[in-house]
Design a protein that fits this description.
Number of helices: 19
Shape: globular
Structural class: alpha/beta
Number of domains: 2
């Protein structure tokens, strides 16, 4: 799947179908460029057709019978084998992390973390083997019933560009542990390093268990979701595309898990501990990966008594950050991934500024020429914007944070819930009871306490949202169960047991 003539030479990736690396139908490819240096070619990826999709789905369907008959213990052993591989071979990890940085833009420290920690997701999923193997029992009279679960069949996994390996780790080991075979479609915007990593994993399984197709979602997306042999779809991406996926899947009565956008609110109470650690956690929760994280902190509500303190403390941290090429060791924030996303976030910032909100653009830019050429935006704090502005009402998905005061906790909860999204949230307080009282009122699938975002998340907990943030859950035991259907087996009392 990968051809390279040097550490930063352009690479070419293909599909992986039925245990064989192969080019797309007709040998079609498309180019990917470095978002920090948009004229720098990083590589070419396979531009798949509907026929490629059909071949991948049929390969997965053909492999399902044998894979589904394996025991949970056998599947767990295979997942642990994958984890062992992913956690070894430092040179290989370094090479893929560098490639990932160049095609995506995020700093090398982040790409290295994402590549190196993928094995943890496989190991954590394997640990559920014993629990999954235990059936539920209902004793009569008049019936005795075994309640078990069985895999659905071919699972379609559609992965976004922002955290492709982390999000893959919330889908792939779970689908495999449940007994399904899979077809994976990485985002066309970040596919080279994720595709290489994924193929190395696929090669460790029997042919057809893991299949990979890449290319333009507009061309092959409907055929992926609507294929009659696909039995489950797990999609992470935008609300608009998620609704379309659901509509296409409905034609085949295919169940879906949709992890969509977020507009996460954080509530900083009057008694919150505001020290260097707290401000750094706020920064990471907001601006990690240039804010291109679904569970990023996107609306910051602060008790009026602490409002100025929070702005000053967070601004101080932001001003220490270096914005530039993610390959450079001092860089803390890389570019936005693509020109379209940069336009969205800069338009939101300008709308807020034009409406009278103060905008503080922070951070250090050591290479101004590179900054102007690449898809860069410094971390921006938007001070007390009107709640109707896009910077507050919509998901920014970029390095900008509106900061707004509140006077009562009831007001804060109302403002936090006044959103069509409901993915994550956070509460910052020294009072445990207050933290739980507020958390239980928030319309969100996950609430962090005194922290926010990926660095604060317990991946054993199910992850997903309410409202426009999606349906279903990934991760944890519940994330595996999503890939299965219940099966009840019963008899008259005394016959089974």
């Amino acid at each position: 799947m990968l051809h390279t003539g040097g550490s930063d030479a352009p690479v070419t990736t293909g599909n992986y179908i039925d245990g064989v690396a192969r080019p797309a139908d007709g040998g079609r490819t498309y180019a990917l460029f470095n978002p920090a240096r948009p004229d720098e070619l990083v590589g070419h990826a396979a531009l798949s057709s509907v026929s490629d999709v059909d071949a991948a789905v049929r390969a997965a369907h053909g492999a399902f019978a044998a894979w589904s008959r394996t025991s949970y213990a056998e599947r767990a052993a295979k997942l642990n084998e994958v984890a062992e591989y992913l956690e070894s071979g430092q040179d290989d990890v370094d090479q893929r992390a560098r490639l990932f940085c160049r095609e995506h833009g995020k700093p090398i420290k982040e790409t290295h973390l994402e590549v190196s920690r993928l094995g943890e997701r496989f190991r954590m999923t394997a640990a559920y083997a014993d629990r999954l193997a235990r059936d539920e029992i209902e004793h009569g009279p008049p019936f005795d019933t075994i309640i078990t679960r069985q895999p659905r069949g071919v699972a379609m996994l559609i992965v976004p560009w922002n955290w492709p390996l982390s999000i893959l780790g919330a889908k792939l080991p779970q689908a495999l542990m449940a007994g399904n075979t899979v077809v994976v479609k990485p985002s066309e915007l970040s596919v080279l390093a994720p595709g290489l990593t994924l193929q190395k994993i696929a090669e460790m399984f029997p042919p057809g268990v893991i299949n990979i197709v890449t290319g333009d979602a507009a061309e092959i997306g409907d055929s992926l979701v609507g294929h009659p042999l696909v039995r489950f779809v797990n999609f992470t991406g935008s609300v608009c595309i998620g609704k379309h996926v659901m509509n296409v899947a409905a034609d085949q009565m295919t169940p879906v898990t949709l992890e969509l956008g977020g507009n996460d609110a954080a509530i900083v109470c009057a008694d919150a501990r505001l020290d260097e650690t707290a401000f750094m956690n706020m920064y990471l929760g907001t601006f990690m990966s240039s804010g291109q994280v679904c569970m990023a902190l996107k609306r910051l509500y602060v008790h009026r008594s602490r409002y100025d303190e929070v702005i000053e403390g967070l601004e101080a941290v932001c001003n220490r950050m270096v914005v530039g090429d993610g390959l450079l060791p001092d860089t803390n924030m890389g570019p936005v991934n693509n020109a379209k996303q940069l336009q969205i976030i800069t338009s939101m910032i300008e709308q807020a500024r034009s409406a009278g909100a103060e905008v503080r653009e922070c951070g250090q830019v050591p290479d101004e020429e590179l900054y102007q050429k690449g898809y860069f935006q410094r971390p921006a704090l938007v001070i007390n914007p009107d709640h109707t502005l896009d910077i507050v009402a919509e998901e920014q998905f970029g390095p900008a944070l509106p900061v707004m005061p509140f006077d009562s906790e009831g007001e804060a909860v109302r403002l936090a819930n006044d959103s069509r999204f409901g993915l994550c949230s956070s509460v910052w307080t020294e009072d445990r009871d207050r933290a739980l009282l507020i958390s239980r009122q928030l319309e969100a699938g996950y609430t962090y306490l005194n922290n926010h975002g990926p660095t604060a998340q317990d991946f054993r907990g199910p992850f997903g949202g309410f409202k426009d943030s999606g349906i279903g859950r990934n991760l944890g035991y519940e994330g595996i169960a999503q890939f299965q259907g219940y099966h009840s087996i019963s008899s008259s009392t005394g016959w089974l047991f």
